[in-house]
Amino acid sequence: MPIMKPLVYTTKCFHAIGIITALVFCSPVGLAADSIFTPFIGSSYGEKDTEKVTTLGASLAAMAGGVFGFEIDFARTAKAPSNAVFVENSRSTTAMGNLIIGVPIKGVRPYVVGGMGWMKTEVSTGSLSKKSDGLALAVGGGVMGFFSDHVGARFDLRYTRAVSIGESIRDVVFEAPAFWRASWGLALRF
Asked: For residue 152, is it within any domain?
């Protein structure tokens, strides 16, 4: 029977570790988290007096305690009618992961946002189509306001720019396109 004791001891340890793990991961979190889904419409434009291009998209954000959070943002511009920010007959698609810092003040939450992700630019000239994609950075801010516990509005202003990395991580090259996006949308909190 001395051979069985280590096996029983090991089995009891695995059970104890399993119970402790379940208690840790299944216990309620004391810090409330807001999840906010925002479908939006807006305009993308460059510096100076460039023509605005309609932009549609959606974002999904999770805010821990209403202050710190993470957001996934997806946006796509309509085809550019002229050579303003984008090349004529071009459009841009972005998918970004952003950090958010916000301050909830009586139903209104101003915030700053910044992150990086992927940008794809498509140019159509006649029968030719050219696509390019790569890394992009975005920074900005905005404000969310809620009319009830679950429904509100969100205004957002962001600057997005394509970047590339050279031979080392310190060789960051800022590239075109670079544009501003002003958007407003319905904020749905759950």
From this structure: yes
Domain count, the chain: 1
pTM greater than the 0.85 cutoff? no
- Residue 170 is given by DSSP the state T
List the structure tokens of 95: 């998918």
Q: What is the C-alpha radius of gyration for the chain, rounded to an integer number of angstroms?
A: 23
Q: What is the pLDDT of residues 107-141, one digit of tens each?
A: 799 999 999 999 998 877 766 777 888 899 999 99
Which uninterrupted H or E stretch holds 183? strand 172-189
- Domain range for residue 54? 30-189
Residues sharing a CB contact under 8 Å with residue 89, sequence separation 6 or more, in sequence order = 79, 80, 123, 124, 125
Residue among 167, 161, 62, 65 at smallest CA distance from 119:
161
pLDDT tens column, 80-111: 777 656 666 778 899 999 999 998 888 799 99
Q: What is the DSSP string of 62-92?
A: EEETTTEEEEEEEEEEPPPSSSSSSPTTEEE
